[in-house]
UniProtKB/TrEMBL annotation:
It comes from the Eukaryota. This is PGG domain-containing protein. Residues 520-630 form the PGG domain. Residues 1-26 are annotated as: Disordered. Residues 1-23 have a biased composition (Basic and acidic residues). Keywords: Membrane, Transmembrane, Transmembrane helix. The chain crosses the membrane at residues 567-590, 611-633, 645-673. GO terms for cellular component: membrane. InterPro entries: Ankyrin_rpt, Ankyrin_rpt-contain_sf, PGG_dom.
Amino acid sequence: MEERKKERLEKEREEDEKTERAGEALSRSKRPYKWAMHDNWEPLKQYYKRNWEEVFIPLTTNDDTVLHVVAYAGRSDVLEFLISLVTTATNDPRKLRHALVLENGHGNTILHEVVASGNLKAAMLLVSHDNSVRSELIARQDVDQTNEYERDVIDARSRSIVEIENKLGETPIYRAASYGHTKLIDFFHKQYVNTERHFTRSVDRMSVLHIAVINQHFDTAVWLLKKYPFLAKTREDDGFTSLQLLAQMPSAFQVYNRESLWKMLIHKCLSEDDSVDGTAPNQNGDIESRWIPQLPTSCLSKKLTRWPRVFSILKQIKKEKTLSELTRLLVEKDYSWVESKKRKKDKTISLVSSQKDIAAICGDGRETKKSTIYNYTPLLIATSTGILPLVKRIYEVHPQAIEAHDIGSQQNILHMSIKHRQLQIFRLVKRRRAITWRLTSRIDSDGNTILHRAADMANYSPDTQRVSGPALQLQEELRWMVRVGKITPPHYIMHRNNKGVTAEELFNSEHEKLLHSAQTWIKDTAQSCSTVAALVATVVFAAAYTAPGGYNSGGVPVLRHSPLFSIFIITGVVSLISSLSSLVTFLSILTSPFEYKNFHHSLPLRLHLGFAFLFFSLVTAMLAFTATVVLLIHLNEKLTWSLFYVAAFLPVSVFGMQLPLYAGFSHALIFLFKKVKKFIVKQKPSISKGFIEC
């Protein structure tokens, strides 16, 4: 037992030392990592000009070198500078060849990362360098009869960088299709005649057309179909064709312009103009615009895209046109309907799904065995507990740690901040756009995307929402889904986790109880407040016919000439209108459908509006009462102004703590009372004369 214990301790010590050495090595390169992540390229170039050997040293936890990071950023100028450093410093083609074929943790070469950025110039640069260095290696072997270059020449002859596959079995040509970069695919198509063997990745037999359709790059899919019609019939491991996958994407066909009349009119006018095209006005590297397809420009679109809403309509028109053409091409190649002739036994209609279907649709997506957060790294623990200063400090000292993930759950800081509802940490990560791009596409070990984590309530805590009431909590959950959805790649919305559940299905099942509580709460609140509003309206309505000071023999109010009587009438009318408006607002809540979409905007807005009307009706009712009392005790000036200030501060002190939105009323009331006081002081002799006459 002692020997085994010693062996175990020795092994753990070796692992700790190995981890420490790797961490120290990454810490030495934290400055160039920061420069690259913040697009500060000049100091990075100067740093590697003095230390060109570190070009081959990993810069991230994913074994990305500076070449990989620069290539993913699409900076062809910096990439050419670094390649020239390797070439001039060594004058050995093997070093450059090593740099071109160097792989990161995912098996991606520099060309894989360049293709992801869509930079055609950088891709042409790498292909040109690869062709020249391969030719030079072969030529040097012919001159040098030794075996010094034999291994490198065999590798150079066997494959170019365009043919290298990553761990998913994706070549750069396949990766260009997955990111929707049609120009890059066309470039590779012209350079290499035999591109068909690059059109399927080995891990799941998914073709380039499958991945283009799933990622909603419909223009790329149309280009592929026109060049290679046989792709329409290819099937992936699960047996689906591209048309079958497209048939499972209702969101791709959804029309977004029916929400308002003017959008429908603009959409109708622009859709009939074939010359109209869309292009992003100014994306500025925003993470949410990274997934917007780059559309060609035109004279008309340059003028129209000054308005983002018009640009969204133009983008939708472009998508509809390409999707329509893609659908047409796929349907023309599809003959699966012929198999309907092969019948077995006719089945009757059934409104009940099988148990297998129910399990697939209604699964909650939660882990059956929850792991404690204390098994994670300190950064992930601080993220889950919401300790923002600790997260900032870790990021300052070890900036590469932000890309690290938990080995067991495969969750990164973005997953953790979303599922634990840590908004400040989420915003902190989102501000680093270059980092966020790399984190949003990660899927954890349970098959959950960041949108699934936003829908999951396993780690939900109402304390993090800082709102009271189930209805407002549900509204915050819906807003959280929308917020995360903005940085989620569009095709991830249809993704199903290991339990076959999409993010929307998971959200509906997880929030079913909260929806029921929100429905009950908002109904009870609306009923109670409508009762109070009706009571205030009744009292104010009755007070309107009971003038202070009474009436004369002709039925005319005695104090009608007093300014305070005018205040009494005005505040009474305003109170009556506000209370009735509040009553109508709360009644509209009670008659509304209590579905998820209503709790996102309309119901909370009506609730706040009803509270505002009710509060204002109570304030004006109190002012009307105060004006009545002052009419009767106006000779005691000190007591009069004491009543005014009590009327101003009492409603705020009562309601202000519960409804901070209305705390600003106190300043308006104080200003109003000062004006009234000044007016009464000026008119004091006439007011006293009016009372004496009465």
